[in-house]
Amino acid sequence: MTLQFRSSPPTALHRTGSELGGALLGRGVAPAAGWPLQAISAPLLGAGTATVQETWLPAAGPVQHGVSEGIVWRRAGEALFGVIDLDEADFAGAGRPPLQAASTAAYDRVFRLLEAQQLPHLWRVWNYMADINAETHGLERYRQFNVGRQDAFIAHRRSATGNVPAACAIGLAEGPLSIAFLAGRAPAMPFENPRQVSAYHYPGEYGPRAPTFSRAALVHPAGQELLFVSGTASIVGHRTVHPEDVAAQSREALANVAAVVAEVNRTARSRPFRLDELVYRVYVRHAADFPAVRDALASALGGAETLYVQADICRADLLVEIEAMASHALGSD
């Protein structure tokens, strides 16, 4: 079973029932009823369309679907895509920050679903939350999320270092804690960036719990090699570099993407992955910075499919973040 990725203006495509899941991006978008389409309500920059739909499709075979503890999911063979949205207000009075409690609850439910489906391996996770850099309950909200996420990993006896999925964590102006994920029976192969300290080894100055994600991951559904590059920013070692210089941050973030892709290519089973063939999602904190970001990335990305989204990054001094993915058929040249 192979997976295909498609990006287009929204259509009635999902009504055929053949899709695994995906994302709907644009200002004011709302969750879809009955199937796992993550709503990412954020302005698109330079897209030429107000909204974009990204869809994962299995190449063949039946698609199962269900709802489990608020997770809307679809499964095709040995791969599963799910989305869960939780209102933080429902976790007020939990004895800990509501976002932290909601994050633990969301991941608890995800892990229970994967155990029930006997598809234990998280491949890629997309995390979105409101006001990611705001401080409440004496702690930045992103750091609250990291505590809640790691608590769930530990409670389910999952590694919080090393063997962890590729992921991003992005801030939106408003909305629920929204988590989408791809998972399967085959384990993902995690990769780190030699230019950076692994996120799960960040020192305590970045919060009481380190972020739980790998810099990239390779996954091998039958006959296929999928590359997921996690949200990547202008960080060298564990420090933000080029503060207040969005063009330099863009180039540094892309240098980090190039470094982790080079690490992946050391052991990739297919032909080497190239920067100009990846599919990119680029988050830009300030809409006015879009032309500078686009121009800084243009020569390296060439004609690569790139979607620019206005959103907040996990550190207040970061202005841009890049994530990417690609798919190769095994044995391709």
Automatic annotation (TrEMBL):
GO terms of molecular function: hydrolase activity
Domain Chorismatase FkbO/Hyg5-like N-terminal: 55-183
Residue ranges of the TM segments: none
Entry keywords, A to Z: Hydrolase
Xref: Pfam families: FkbO_Hyg5-like_N, Ribonuc_L-PSP
Name this protein carries in UniProt: Rid family hydrolase
Organism the protein comes from: Thiobacillus sedimenti
Organism ancestry: Bacteria, Pseudomonadati, Pseudomonadota, Betaproteobacteria, Nitrosomonadales
